[in-house]
Amino acid sequence: MADAVDQGWTGGRRAVGDIAPALAHYTDRVLFDEVRARPDLSARDRSLVTVAALVATGSTEQLAFHLPFARENGVSTGELVEAITHLAFYAGWPKAMAAIAALRTALPATEENNHD
């Protein structure tokens, strides 16, 4: 039987568990295992909201994870580009430009010019 610590999301533990075990716990158990699993927003919509919040706050380092995760959750590259373009007018041009650079880095080379 698997230990409860090994079940569910483990990204927080892998990323910061060695130095910040409490932050890893809250990331894995509360944010990913509980909040993201709530039924009133789909995983796709949660990813789009998360990306928008990260762009708006200038948290581009976190986009390296959340942009590909959004793609896995069904957000198209074209939708990400459009959301970031829209946010340029609300969050600021530099934040949008940095987010597009993060998106370019996060995309496989074959997908870069294909905005599904």
Element layout with pairings:
Blueprint: H1 11-16, H2 21-32, H3 43-57, H4 60-72, H5 77-91, H6 93-106
Question: Quick check: average pLDDT?
Answer: 89
What does the overall shape look like? Answer: globular
Percent strand equals: under 5%
The description of the largest β-sheet is:
none
- Secondary-structure-based class equals mainly alpha
User: How helix-rich are the residues, as a percent range?
Assistant: 55-70%
User: Number of helical segments?
Assistant: 6
Order of helices and strands: HHHHHH
**Low-confidence segments, ≥5 residues, pLDDT <50?**
none
Radius of gyration: 15 Å
**How many beta-strand elements?**
0
> How far apart are the first and last residues' alpha carbons, in Å?
42 Å
Can you describe this structure?
The chain has 116 residues and is mainly alpha-helical. The chain has 6 helices and no strands. It has helices at 11-16, 21-32, 43-57, 60-72, 77-91, 93-106. Helix 3 (43-57) runs antiparallel to helix 4 (60-72), helix 4 (60-72) crosses helix 6 (93-106) and helix 5 runs antiparallel to helix 6 (93-106). The N and C termini lie far apart (42 Å). The mean pLDDT is 89.
